[in-house]
Design a protein that fits this description.
With 224 residues, the protein is α/β, with parallel strands linked by helices. Helices cover 32% and strands 22% of the residues. Strands 5-4-3-6-7-9-8 form a 7-stranded mixed β-sheet, with helices on both faces. The chain has a two-stranded antiparallel sheet with strand order 1-2. Helix 1 (27-40) packs parallel to helix 2 (55-64). The protein is globular and about 50 Å long. It starts with a strand and ends in a 16-residue tail after the last strand.
C-alpha cells in the first residue's frame, strides 16, 4: 500500500487505496460546518459519521476550535483519521471510533452539529468507480441507505436546534430525501436548505426540530 498525502484546507491528510481518496471540494462542507458552529456559539463537540480518513470532520474541528467525534466502520479509515488528527495536533480533542454508527455513539451523547458524507452510489453503478473501495461508495439499491441511517443517528444525537450537514451525490437524491422527511409526522429534522457544491454533489442542511426533548448541558444554555 502506498500512503499519499493531500492538502485539505488547513490540514495535511494521509490516505491510501484502502480508503476513499479525499475530494478537495468536500472542504466546503467543513467550512460551512465551522461557520454554523461559530454563529451558534456553545462548546459542545461535533460528530462526523462515515468519516473516512477524517478530513471533513478534522478540518471543521480545526476551523471552529471544537472537539470532535469521528466514526467509521472501516478500521483502516479510522487508523488514518487518528493519524491525521495527531499530525494536525488535534488528538487531544478528537475521538476516533471504529464500528457501526448505531453502536459506537452512546445513547446519551449529544452534539452541536453532525456531519455526514456517506456512500451514495447505487449498488448497481459502483462498477463505474473501480479505484474506490466498495464499502466507501456503495449506498445500497437507491444510493441512500446509509444516508437514511446517518439522518436517523444524527437526529438522535443532535442538540435542540442543532444543524446536520449531509453530503449527497446530486440534487435528485437531495429532493428524494427532502420529500421523505416532509412525509414524516412529526419530523425530527427540518430542511433548512440545499447547497450545490462546485466540483460535485449537493449538501442538505437540516435542523433538529424537537427542541424540548434535550436539556442544555453546562456551558451551552441557549445554544444549539
Amino acid at each position: 500500500m502506498t500512503t499519499r498525502t493531500v492538502t485539505f484546507g488547513p490540514l495535511d491528510i494521509a490516505y491510501d487505496e484502502r480508503v476513499l481518496e479525499p475530494r478537495l471540494w468536500t472542504l466546503a462542507q467543513s467550512q460551512w460546518a465551522a461557520e454554523l458552529l461559530r454563529s451558534h456559539g456553545g462548546v459542545s463537540p461535533l460528530l462526523e459519521l462515515c468519516a473516512g480518513a477524517g478530513q471533513i470532520g478534522l478540518a471543521a474541528a480545526a476551523l471552529s476550535g471544537r472537539a470532535a467525534v469521528l466514526v467509521d466502520s472501516s478500521e483502516d479509515a479510522c487508523r488514518f483519521a487518528a493519524r491525521n488528527a495527531a499530525v494536525a495536533g488535534l488528538s487531544g480533542r478528537v475521538d476516533v471510533r471504529h464500528g457501526p454508527m448505531q453502536e459506537v455513539v452512546g445513547p446519551h451523547e449529544s452534539f452541536a452539529l453532525v456531519l455526514a458524507d456517506p456512500p451514495y452510489i447505487p449498488s448497481a453503478h459502483t462498477g463505474a468507480f473501480p479505484r474506490d473501495p466498495l464499502t466507501a461508495i456503495d449506498g445500497g439499491d437507491d444510493g441512500l441507505e446509509l444516508a437514511r441511517t446517518c439522518l436517523r443517528i444524527g437526529a438522535g444525537h443532535l442538540r435542540p436546534g442543532g444543524p446536520l450537514l449531509l453530503q449527497l451525490r446530486d440534487g435528485a437524491q437531495a429532493d428524494q430525501l427532502a420529500a421523505e422527511l416532509h412525509a414524516q409526522a412529526p419530523a425530527a429534522l427540518e430542511l433548512a436548505g440545499v447547497r450545490d457544491v462546485p466540483g460535485g454533489g449537493s449538501v442538505l442542511h437540516l435542523v433538529r426540530t424537537d427542541v424540548a426533548s434535550l436539556a442544555p448541558t453546562a456551558g451551552d444554555e441557549g445554544a444549539p
